[in-house]
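Same chain as my last thread, 202 residues:
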Amino acid sequence: HRDLHSFPTRRSSDLKKAALESFQKAVEQYSVDLSEIKALQGGTWPSWPSGSDIVDILTGIGGLPKGRIVECYGKPSSGKSTLFFTCAGKIQKMGKKVILLDFERTFDPSWAQTLGLDPSDTSTFLWVQSEDLKTTEQGFNLIYKFLDSDFADDIGIIIWDSLAGSTPAAIANKEEVEDTTRRAARASVLSDELPRLAEKLR
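reply #2:
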C-alpha cells in the first residue's frame, strides 16, 4: 500500500479523498464497508491524535474520538499495539493519564518509550497486570472504578491489551475449553458490559 508521504502536496480535502481511495483499494479483498468512515469526513468530534497521519485523515476527525470505545483488530504483529501506544504517548505529553490493562503480559517499557510513551512517569502512566487482571469482568470493573474516581477527568485513554487475552469468569477455572465455548462466553460478557461502559462514557 502507499503511505501518506507518497501523495503529492494538495488541499486537505483532496488529500483526504486520495487517502481514502488508497485505503479502500488496500482492503478491497476484505469487503470492508467504508460508509461510516466516509460519514465522518468533515466531522467535528473531539479527538486525540493517533500518531499516524493516515489514520487521522481517514477518521475525518483528526484521530481517535475522545470518550468513545475504539476497537483495533488485525493479525498478530500487524501494528495494533504500536498504534495505541503511539497515540498514548501523545496523550501523555498533553498531561493526561494513560492506563494500560495488560492482559497479554507482553508490555515492553523500553519499546513503548521508543514510541513516545514514558512508562517511568507514574503520575501519568498506570500499568495494571499480574494478579490484578485474571478475568474479563475484572477488566471492566477496574475501568468503572477509574471512571468513578476523583481523577476520572484526567484520564486520556485506557488501553485494553487484549480482548483475546482476557478470559471470562465462567471459563476461567476450566483447564480445557473449546474455542466456540470461549467465544460464546466472551460474547456474553461483552453484550452485558459494553452497553454499560458506553453509558458511563456519555
